Amino acid sequence: MAKKKVFVSFDYENDRHYKNLLKAWDANPEFDFYFSDISSEEIQSWDIPTIKSALTTKINQANYTLVIVGEYANTQHKDCKQIGYKNWINFEIAKSKANKNKLVAVKIDSDYTSPDELLGAGAEWAMSFNRDAIIYKYIQEIEAKLTEEMKPFEISREGECASPEPTKYTITFNSDNGTAVSTITVTSGNKATKPTNPSKTGYTFVDWYKEATLTNVFDFNTAITANITLYAKWTAVSYKVTLDANKGTPGTTTTITVEQGKTVPTSTTGLPTFTGHTLVGWNTKADGTGTGFVFGDTPVFADITLYAKWTINVYIVTLDANGGTPGTTTIIKVEHGKTVPTSTSTTALPTFTGHNFLGWKTKADDTGTGFVFGDTPVFADITLYAQWSNISYTVTLDPNGGTAGSTTKVSVYHGQTVPSSISINNLPTRMNYQLLGWNTSADGKGSEFVFGTTVFADITIYAKWTINVYTVTLDANGGTPGTTTIIEVEHGKTVPTSTTGLPTFTGYNL
Q1: Which end of the chain, N or C, is surrounded by fewer C-beta atoms within 10 Å?
Q2: CA angle 220, 222, 225 (to 5 degrees)
Q3: Where do the domains of the chain lie, and which CATH numbers do they carry?
């Protein structure tokens, strides 16, 4: 009777057992099987197409396939995509099923997980074995199984042989708006293979968590015993916004961390300062020719340096005429640290009748600080007060033919009057004349000037004299008075010969 041809599918991580088994069987002349996969050539493990072709040929030549389940029989092979199955054992079982080989399986240890393709394949199972006596136990138990007819564990409704279906669970992945991750089906008690990490614009994937609250990280070495949903945890990608004071003084805040797509908070404090300047915004270039950036409005998508955009402060210099009449310029705008242009002096000059303009000070009462156009820098809004001195006029007392008194000149401020006390003391004199007053003309034909008159300019006033007049009384001396008894004669003059109305005395001649 011809020997039955057997193909052996084994856990490649435990091939020492496989090789020992083949040697033992080959040494047994009564063994009723031979193996179709004994080859004198060593196939390179990286040559996947050649391996697949060789295995397919040998499986097709066999009547039986013996599946030896080792520790790594259900792990994922690094070349699984090229193999087309999870690993080589699954590939070999699938090809054996396609060739209608009878399947016999044995576990080296009872707790090892069976290959996925073996489940539901109607395979007969040999007992598990003790590794210390593995060769002889294999011979006894496996030979018995190989010579038996296949016995199904259960009969399906269609009458086909089928093994009991193991319980399977699904792992659903909630990627929280990240790229979708396909659901994984895992046999009860098996471990799930961690899928490729999802992606999400503006975020970095952290891990899969057991709860929606993202409290506990899921360990993919955990045996699956129920349907579960895993939740992706993300951390937002953050960028650094650097604030450059751009010639100013940096504030306490020089860098701000902003999540991708978010804006710099408008509540940001600790911004830079620049004496004499006002911060009016930010720009991507120091010279302000870049793109404007607005806190609370411009989204951030990369690390960025922003440059403070400054405008120099402009102050108001107010000119107060301080009792005078303002000039045509009363308000001047001056940049921080600059001076009031000297060209403004003329239009800014106020006037005050009877006063001389002395300059400007910071207080109206002359106690302030002097301020000079073109020289004094401005660092704040300021009011300047015109400083004045009263104009003093000279009133010259001309004796006008008389003898000057001790006072010949009187100084009088504009709008003031000559003190009346001068009219009593130290006035000019003129022999045989009386001082009647003062006139603006020597001939007395000008305007009368009375002490107490307001003065608005230099002026010379002339003494106005009247000659002394004497009384000549005519006494009839016993005669009869005439119609003229009194005659007034100016000093040094004579009684006129033409005088009439003289007295008479009968019998006498005057």
Answers
A1: N
A2: 120
A3: 4-162 (3.40.50.450), 168-236 (2.60.40.4270), 238-312 (2.60.40.4270), 315-390 (2.60.40.4270), 393-467 (2.60.40.4270)
